[in-house]
Every structure is written in C-alpha cells, then in structure tokens.
C-alpha cells in the first residue's frame, strides 16, 4: 500500500543524513517509487520473466559501470563472465531446480565447482562482502583525514545533509568510538570530497579557451 511505502521512506530518511527539505525538493519519494517499479511483482507469470526482470534491473548496469570506473582509474579493465550474453541466455533457460533446490541458491554453480573449490566454500550459506571491511580499516587508520574532509566541506554538505545529524554521528564516532555511526561518517566525508572535486580542477581562462 502507498501508506506503507511512505512510512518506509520516512523511516529511511530518519536514519539517513539527507536533509528533509532537500528530499522534498528532489521528490525523493517519487524517485524511490520509480526504483521500486523495477522490482519483480508478487505474481509474475513464470520463472523466465522473473529472471528477465532481474537482469534488466538498473542495479546491474550501475554496478558494472562503477566497477569499470574503479578499474579504469588503476589502468585495468574489468571483466564480468556472468554477464556474457551466452551465459545469461543459458541461465535464463535453466529449470528452477538448477537455481534453487533444497533451500540452496545456485545449485548448478555449486555442483560445477566440485573439485575446484573447497567444500566449505562451495556450500557456504553466507554471501560475505569485503568492501566495508576495507573501508572500516581505512577509516580507523585515517580518522584525522576523514574528520578534516567533513569539516572543510561543510559549506557544500549543508545543501544536502542535515548538519545536526552529521554532528551527532561525528560525535558518536570520533569521540565515543561508536562503530554504528561509521557508515554515515564515511558517506559524509566521501560526498564532501566528491562535491569539492570540480572546484579543485584547473581553471582555463577565457583567453586560453
């Protein structure tokens, strides 16, 4: 129901640093509605259509573009074998028993890795992500840098972020050592540096242009 979706948006705003006025100006609720529209509905006709909807979700495109930008900055080219057209077509044609069986996701891939991966990895239940572990370690070793990034960019951040919430998060993280506030602090520092980048680029005079 629309009321429940609005309540979800309200809760997300309360736990984020986004300034409520900025959220209203950019119609954040409408943007989230557009994003939800890409989710698979509860009554899709068949498994193939559900897979096609998942493959066409914007998250996939955004992820690939992000990884490509990161790799390019280091002079690398990222490759994603699972989005090869032939692999995608093959996976879309698989019966449901090969994508979910006995409560296990991706059984065909687990079976294909027999003799290639240790059993505890091949049949693990979790889906660990290492990115935040690296970010948390970086922040712990660079707290002064993170704090300076936030302080020096407050004039830019105040257009988008509730500074009272940011100050509370920084106080809990830097003074009290609250790891639960680390994601908010990191997001603010990262956003501030990103917003500052255009101002730090070399300026070309009108005569030179």
Explain what this protein looks like in three dimensions.
- The chain is globular and about 55 Å long.
- Helix 10 (143-152) crosses helix 13 (182-200) and helix 12 (163-175) packs across helix 13.
- The N and C termini lie far apart (55 Å).
- It has helices at 2-15, 20-25, 28-36, 47-55, 58-73, 85-92, 107-112, 119-122, 131-141, 143-152, 154-157, 163-175, 182-200; strands at residues 100-101, 104-105.
- It contains 13 helices and 2 strands.
- It has 209 residues and is mainly alpha-helical.
- It has a two-stranded antiparallel sheet.
- Strand 1 (100-101) and strand 2 form a beta hairpin.
Please, what is the average pLDDT? Answer: 85
If you compute it from the alpha carbons, what radius of gyration comes out, rounded to the nearest whole angstrom? Answer: 22 Å
**Main sheet strand line-up:** 1-2
Give the termini distance in whole angstroms: 55 Å
Strand content: under 5%
Count of individual beta strands: 2
- Report the uncertain regions: none
> What form results from the Cα inertia axes?
globular
| SS content category | mainly alpha
**How would you spell out the order of helices and strands?**
HHHHHHEEHHHHHHH
Share of helix, binned: 55-70%
Largest sheet at a glance?
Answer: 2 strands, antiparallel
Number of helices: 13
Task: Break the fold down into its secondary structure elements and pairings.
Blueprint: H1 2-15, H2 20-25, H3 28-36, H4 47-55, H5 58-73, H6 85-92, E1 100-101, E2 104-105, H7 107-112, H8 119-122, H9 131-141, H10 143-152, H11 154-157, H12 163-175, H13 182-200
Antiparallel strand pairs: 1-2
Helix pairs in contact: 10-13, 12-13
